[in-house]
Amino acid sequence: MRESGQREVFCGLTSIVWLHRRMPDAFFLVVGSRTCAHLIQSAAGVMIFAEPRFGTAILGERDLAGLADANEELDRLVAQLLQRRPEIRTLFLVGSCPSEVIKLDLAKAAERLNRQHGGQVRVLNYSGSGIETTFTQGEDGALQALIPLMPKGEERQLLIVGTLADAVEDRLVGLFQRLGIERVVSLPPRRSTELPSVGPGTQLLLAQPFLSGTARALIDRGASLIRAPYPFGVEGSHAWMAAAAAAFGVAPERVAELLDPLVERGRRALAPLRQTLEGKRLFLLPDSQLEIPLARFLSRECGMELVEVGTPYLDRQVMAEELALLPAGTQISEGQHVENQLLRVRAQRPDLVVCGLGLANPLEAEGMATKWSIELVFSPIHGIDQAADLAELFARPLRRRAALSFA
Ligand code: SF4
Hints:
A 6-stranded parallel β-sheet has the order 1-12-11-10-13-14, with helices on both faces. Strands 3-2-4-5 form a 4-stranded parallel β-sheet, with helices on both faces. The two termini are 39 Å apart. The protein has helices at residues 16-22, 34-43, 61-65, 67-84, 97-101, 106-117, 137-146, 166-178, 212-220, 233-247, 252-277, 291-300, 316-325, 338-348, 357-365, 374-378, 387-406; strands at 2-4, 26-32, 54-58, 90-95, 122-127, 157-161, 184-187, 202-206, 224-225, 281-284, 305-311, 332-336, 352-355, 369-372. The model has no long low-confidence stretch (mean pLDDT 91). By secondary structure, it is α/β, with parallel strands linked by helices. It folds into 3 domains: 2-133, Rossmann fold, CATH 3.40.50; 157-254, Rossmann fold, CATH 3.40.50; 267-406, Nitrogenase molybdenum iron protein domain (Rossmann fold, 3-Layer(aba) Sandwich). The chain has 17 helices and 14 strands. Helices cover 48% and strands 16% of the residues. Helix 12 runs parallel beside helix 13. The relative contact order is 0.12. Bound molecules: iron/sulfur cluster (SF4). Iron/sulfur cluster binds next to helix 2.
């Protein structure tokens, strides 16, 4: 089902919250309004205790009336920032709804600023605007901005694409190396200036399902896409690793030898959580673009019943393996008409609704258990070892709701 209408999602600026942690030598300068500044401050509230690596160049009323002023102001602010923070190596100018509405050309601004400050810092731009985008697309935009800077390289390598928690990444890279894949690199890297190379020897493995623009741009640079489900749950993570192993010619026996004990342990850890989740009816509203892989995990490994699986966008190229694993007849909706979706939620009365923050409280007030989808992007949920933690994120609101009903 395709829907369009009013949407209830965070904008792409939100992705700065995890991207700035990943690349501590980068700075994200949002070119936006006071609303954008409030969003980014409250989404990343913990940063008030540290010198933050993001900020907002606030477009005032004067800027909104005249572009010349806005450009001058931006140049002045960037010069000030770089003087104060000489350690910044990559500066992202992040577009917003206001900068798009007044048609402030941030690509040109980045070119101009590169001429002024080249050598000290690289200035890039992408859009985090909430007009027609959802919050995970912010990462897709930021990674696409980095791709032209990746050097060309012929060597055979596995490129993991998508931000992972450092500890999870170390674990996965270690496993790939034990499988015999010697060269494993990541995008985004931990330092913004240490970009991996890309070329015909690069096999690209997506760690997140919302990076279709990045995948296409890397394929244009010669990389080949490894088609696999995403590394959520025991089954998905195993298939993800096995697909990479097959692309590098690793013998299936070696894969089994290394991964079978992990699969066994992962399944054992999942078993008690399955007891809470089994048979519960689940409705996923479109928000993070993780909905389809999560629905696959929750239905196949946790026994949940899928009422509806919403997704903001459906790119069949990067989602084909996931779609094939969903139970036959699963209702999938693409896009959002929030009023109609809420009517369906109320009619169905599912046991658990996965949705954005703005909808969670009203639905809780109506007696439904909810899970904030944004939490799934901030939590370390990738890999076989994390499957039980991932299931726990869904079991907790159900237990809480049960306790409240009992009280
Ligand atoms: S980019 Fe748009 S949606 Fe996001 S905070 Fe700014 S005004 Fe709001």
